[in-house]
Amino acid sequence: MSSKASRSPRASCHALRVRLPHLPADAEPAFRAAATAWWPARPPRLWLDPVPAPAGSPAADRRLHAELHRPIEPGGPVLRAVCLVYADGSADLVLVARRQALDLTSLRLIADVVTGTRAAADISPPAPSVDPDWDDGETAWATSDPRAGDRSGQVDVVLGAAGSGTVPALVVAAGLVLSRYTGRTTQEILLCAPEPDRPAAVLGAFDRFSVPSLDFSGESTLGELADPAPAARPAGQAVAIVANGQTADGYVACQAPLCPLTLVPRTTTGQLTVTVHHRLTDVDDASAARFATHLARVYAQVLASAPERDPRDLDLVDDAEAAALAALGRPSREPGREPERIERVFARRVAERPDATAVSCEAESLTYEQLDDRSTRLAASLVEHGVRPGDRVGVCLDRGLDLVATLLAVLKADAVYVPMDPAHPRDRLACTVADADLRLVVAATAELPASDVEWVSPAALSLGTGELPVPARSADDAAYVIYTSGSTGRPKGVVVPHRNVPALLAATTGDFGLGPDDVWTLFHSSAFDFSVWEIWGALLTGGHLVVVPYWVSRSPAEFRALLASRRVTVLSQTPSAFAQLMAADRAPLTPLPLRLVVFGGEALDPAPLRGWFDRYPESRCRLVNMFGITETTVHVTAQTITRREALSGSRSVGPALPGWHLYVLDERGRHLPVGAPGEIHVGGAGVAIGYLGRPALTAERFLPDPITGGRMYRSGDRGRLLPDGRLEHLGRLDDQVKIRGFRIEPGEVRGVLRQCPGVHDAAVVVGGRDTGDNAALRLDAYVVTDSTTTTAIRRWAAKLLPEHMLPATITVLPQLPLTPNGKFDTAAVPEPEFTHNSTSERPDSADDVDPAMLKIWAEVLGKPVEPDDDFFSLGGNSLYAVRLDAAMQQQGLPALPLRELYLNPTIRKLTNALKPNGGH
């Protein structure tokens, strides 16, 4: 909803309609005489307009509507008077005036003269100060809105018995409804009310406009809100209340909307009725009707409440609407399958396709039967090493066949796998080992942290020949634990049961057409929950899983070549990674065989996908945007992205998957109406067991589902339900961010920095948001230290944080800036300082460095670069690295293997490495 008042010609006018059984014989002469007396310089006239249709007929109603809503253009007369005379002899008098010249009471007085109920001599002419040619455009409340057209609608709602506190209660009720609709606690209402001591029989504009500001944060009671302070700086309003709509019998006021919603209260037979006028450019009919319903509900509570009551206690949604909203967030189709364990579903695929390729990596591959045999032997060996049902087993392996076989083996041993990325710092791996209380860690490298836990290689485990016990645990028991960033500085392990993974595949297989003919990629780290979808999506549907080596995943050109050579059909990508793949997938290259691309991990902007549809029509390759959370088993919703979606820039992430439930709730756990933003809660088949060893946090985030009696997860994500059940994702309620698909809690990074010796305080913010470029997103750290260098702080952080969580910049401050409330003031921090190597460490000569290389680095990174500056210390990342490679090739320089950049991150080192036989 737009939050602007309108200053269009129509919005500056209002009208009065008077129903007449017949046209009085002296109506036109009486009006002419009165108008000449009131406006001698330019008297308006009364136009008699025959309508060749009876009153109340469709043709007559269309003519009446057009006349009531036809504005007086700037420079026109102060008043337009038209009498529509119908074929049955009855008539409608229509008076239209500009609000700044004549108020509604003036229109009633003029109508009295035309109908003969009042003499013109009894009415005083307009005061000289009223300017009939007003069009200065400087009224504070009338903000220009170029989108405002002449189309509007209206809906009437009876609020109940009228009383002396009608207008104040209506202001509070409207403000509260608007606050819940927008999620903003402070609301402004444009209020138009007649001057209390208005002269009874004088023409003119005596309405007074004000903009009260209402605070629904809990600081003000209902009684205090009834007398609100004016807005200090009115900034445009979404709701106006025109409190001068009282009319006599047969007199009907017509108000063009001043704002997207304009409320006109009137009293009829002791009942307060409000007409909700709405601009159709901003508010559709269904939304206006919902607003009217909620307004009536809240208004009744305002009147019935004690003045000291907290306005947050008032309910916007009743039980019936809450039930309807709960149903809206649940798909009509629910999978009817019994809960299953992962390895048992896999066993059925083995029986169906024993000789089909299950998994491959570079030159190696395993059929389903071979993978089943290898994982069984590994599982038997795990049992021989003391692994018991329910034990947690760490899996710290590079991407390859051993990784997939070991994950399956842990499940077959009736244990729980805990994936650990070998690229993570040793100290972080040690923290995972301790926090997860692992029985055993399967790892291929000797470079592992010291620990009392046994570390064993896949090669040693493959010798196992013991009998594998039949799993005694159920599908409700844990299958894996994946660690995510924690706001307290401590990563938290999410425990997911077996049943959730087959349920995810049951919810998507039919819609996506997943089956044995599909070829999938394992593109992501096994410690990232997207890998759960990739691995088990392929293996539980009989497909072929292609493991993507790490360095291939970092090079869009090499990855694109792999997709082509392996005939991959199902691809899962973060939007950031897919943007790089699109850049590498250009004509004259033959289009890829992809038929399904699943986006996840971060917010998707569909606009850049428009070019994709030129090479891959919707009928050839389906793009699906899936919102999901580790705590709800990877995916929650699915939205097919079409060319139309890409053109419109839709933020919809689609409806809930079958078996998953979506609720949008306020801070008190109450349902919010369609279109209102709140916290996304997810129930149903994907909800995890909880956080490992964190009962208090589990109780805080995993709540009882009042609809199903099960459990739901309070996500911390902000969103709103659309009328068709789709979800719009609106970001985070806290400071959690996703950078290049990785979920990061700045609080965890801040906690690590504060632990560094010599650092007294630290803060972490997300930089690069203002560029609109995902590659520019970064973590900027600000630290308070006496003597510790940023280099030392960076080394400390690198011991505890994975690469994607390391701050791109570290800036030393004498103290952290604070708001008046004592909180860290993100708006007051200086520009971050990007680290250059010290001059003393830099060789004097740059003669051996290509100037073109210096220029390219500076253009990609957006800052000056010296030959010995570290690419990553200057804010570089994997996405910038891809751009660097493309820019170098455009300038005729050698292609840049991204592995070389990671190993040689300065221009001087990289130049030497790229020379023939250089550095090797």
Structure description:
The protein is of the alpha/beta class. The chain folds into five domains: 13-313, Chloramphenicol Acetyltransferase (2-Layer Sandwich), CATH 3.30.559; 342-473, Rossmann fold; 499-724, ANL, N-terminal domain (Rossmann fold, 3-Layer(aba) Sandwich), CATH 3.40.50.12780; 745-833, ANL, C-terminal domain (GMP Synthetase, Chain A, domain 3, 2-Layer Sandwich); 846-920, ACP-like (Non-ribosomal Peptide Synthetase Peptidyl Carrier Protein, Chain A, Orthogonal Bundle), CATH 1.10.1200.10. The strands form ten sheets. Strands 5-13-12-10-7-8 form a six-stranded mixed β-sheet, covered by helices on one side. Strands 28, 29, 30, 32, 33 and 34 form a six-stranded antiparallel β-sheet that branches. Strand 12 (261-268) and strand 13 (271-279) form a beta hairpin. Helix 23 (851-861) crosses helix 24 (878-890). The longest helix has 20 residues, at 285-304. It is elongated and about 110 Å long. Residues 2-9, 129-149 and 838-844 have low confidence and may be disordered.
Layout: helices, strands, pairs:
Blueprint: E1 13-20, H1 27-38, E2 46-51, H2 58-68, E3 79-86, E4 91-98, H3 104-115, E5 152-161, H4 166-182, E6 186-188, E7 190-194, E8 207-210, E9 213-215, H5 222-225, E10 239-242, E11 251-255, E12 261-268, E13 271-279, H6 285-304, H7 319-328, H8 342-352, E14 357-361, E15 364-367, H9 368-384, E16 392-396, H10 401-412, E17 416-419, H11 426-436, E18 440-443, E19 454-456, H12 458-461, E20 478-484, E21 492-497, H13 500-512, E22 519-522, H14 530-539, E23 544-547, H15 550-554, H16 556-565, E24 570-573, H17 575-584, E25 596-599, H18 612-615, E26 622-625, E27 639-641, H19 643-648, E28 652-654, E29 660-665, E30 678-684, E31 690-691, H20 695-701, E32 702-704, E33 711-721, E34 727-732, E35 737-739, E36 742-744, H21 746-755, E37 759-767, E38 778-785, H22 790-800, E39 809-812, H23 851-861, H24 878-890, H25 898-903, H26 907-914
